[in-house]
Description:
Blueprint: H1 10-44, H2 48-85, H3 92-106, H4 108-119, H5 139-144, H6 146-168
Helix pairs in contact: 1-2, 2-3, 2-4, 2-6
Amino acid sequence: MNxxxxxxxxxxxxxxxxxxxxxxxxxxxKIVSTTIGTTADAxxxxxxxxxxxxxxxxxxxxxxxDYLILISFLVSMLMLLVSSFFIDTxxxxxxxxxxxxxxxxxxxxxxxxxxxxxxxxAAMTTHDGGSVILSLALTDxxxxxxxxxxxxxxxxxxxxxxxxxxYFSNE
Length: 171
């Protein structure tokens, strides 16, 4: 139901929740890691099964944040392409492009660390011992050539921006 004067907030709400979660990530990770880590060590002296369950919960929580970081990075890469396509409509897209490109390059090493943690996660194995991520096409290529892929996206979006500016500047 989209009447005049009402806005669709689906994607806006998703991005807002994603940003809030990313701001809360360091705080939540610190609280959970210290609390569960020290408690699991203390419980391990009495019941190793309970300590293993607490460690499992901690790993699930950290994996959630790794996936959140991965999704935010993919959204950033898509925003690079979107802002390069809209560069001729308004100058604010150039500012968005520069900010997002800077953040992508700045957080690329941390992103690669999150990808490696997800890649090596034992919880991602299937029933036959194979990994779900390992079976995806081009996953190992993207992981090993992460810097080249980021550079390729930035160069591709730069070519798109140049072509749009060059094409529309003649009008």
